[in-house]
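Appendix B. One record, verbatim.
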Amino acid sequence: MKKFFGVTVTLIITLYLLIEFIGDRLIKNVLQNNISSALNREVSIENLNIDYLSGEANAKGISLLNKNFEGFFVKIENVKVELDAFSIFSNDVIINNVLLDDIKVNYYFRFADQIIDDNVRSLKKDLENKTSYSDSNKYFNIKNLDAKNISLSALSPDLDIEKTLTLKDMNFKNVGNTSDSKNYKDILKGVFNNTIELVKEKIFNENFLDKLENFDPKQIENKVKDKLKNKLKKLIK
């Protein structure tokens, strides 16, 4: 009997250790793949630790990389999640609270052929055109989501622009992909729209982006030519 009890305890401990060390890696890979597929962008997670007994998960260094620009679009340094840990292995993931802390957002843009191209509109377009998809058939609902300590940087290496500002904390309720949730893609699109408007208002004065969209390099070229012609005429006289 003692031998049987000892074997049972050993098996339970071994199973728990396997879940702790292998389960975290497995779930980390699944999350990276599913989020990458859903957003059509590469996602990386530096570290993920799940306490299966308390139902708490902590992640560090979650990065959403740009598709047509260098570097990352969003990087979240710290993530804390309170959930029903065993629901991860079911089709309905139950998430009570999510805290996203120390968030860095990079708004990259460039101007070419009278068109402004940026990483926000690119991702928004993918979501609207439904070119992004998810390999997972799981459903989830986040009852409460807080995003704190957010910084937004507007970057354009071509125009030598780099400006950073601090955003207000954000809070969302019932975000997910269930019938009772506010669709997470709609939430993202709303955040993207607000980001673009904020960049126009706070970083670029006098509708800088709109002026760039109407900018015609040939007009500048013609003006320069006219000035040179006038100077030459004066010199000849």
